[in-house]
């Protein structure tokens, strides 16, 4: 009785499609036919039968399964589409219109208790950190299902413009909202968010960020030259860089052998590319239901640097980078992508960010002004823990340049230490100047700022409560705290949360003498 079965006579004369064929009705609640049971069970997708969480025997079994994998040493569990779990709310039209107690007792509490706080529970919930928190999950996806926020980062790099880049983090339900949710709960629960990176992007000018292309001589390319043998994907791009006629590469994904321990590809250099004449490949979201993506796809010659930059921007913003699709768009496959073997740059970046307190996944984020639209920078600040602060600077342009970053007055003459190289730069009159290569990035640690202690749901804005009060309407939560630090009369803040759990904006009161 792990499933919710239909009455014996239901659908008997017209069973629905069997599991192997019903991917076309994925996401539509209904009865699926089981040839083994010769009966129909309630589910969203026959490929992933939905068990009934109101069943005591199923809850006992899932507890046994979770404890088994924890004993084997797993670090976390990922729940696919938890709002489709039968008996946990999915059998009503409102989806999440139910209390979280059932899933918390059946999954989250079991994992956290048996795993003694070492093992996490993550969920495929999109841009809803408040629900993530309510269900006891440790993290969810800080993006819309169609990777809209990830595409914003890719488009900013492709256009070399920061005009809309901040919205990748500040939009509703994104990483800024998730971190603000942590502070709204006074630090008692701080779920993190991650984002599926856009790795199928060809990076050719004018290309769609989610769709791929296949270019060859006579089909979008005027020049074509094969590179002999198989190689790592970065070696293919290196061969292109040495050829003045090369604008990009066409990668053959099926050339590699898993037994070698490395994911290798075949390589063809292409030049004189006219993207409008190349063969467009399908939107990679549809590869979810296939065993693999296209056998070959094409990339612009700087795809490695651009992909690595997109990863760096997401990490700097507080997102845990997720790799679910590969360079050919296939889901959950051992296939390379531009930058996947970019040693030592990628491992060094991941290790440095992981060990840097101001770039933790729950540190506050605030955009910083730069002098050029092709540059971007942000401040990170661990306001509730150790007060550590850091700044990340990015060059979105195809040429090297000096990124000039305006910092808060607290750092007017501070020393900034590069967490990747150990180099120290001096802030001059509140401006940090960073020399960066094309598509380059740098992460710096700054002197610590004061820490904040939450006092809970207190309203200290009334007449006579404070000797000083200044009101700022609808600003990002991080900016409210930073504004107080910049105001000599401010010693505390009081916040009206505009839409906690969905928006990081607050009405900010700067207070003194409370």
Automatic annotation (TrEMBL):
This is Uncharacterized protein. Signal peptide: none annotated. It comes from Noctiluca scintillans (Sea sparkle). InterPro entries: GH, Glyco_hydro_b.
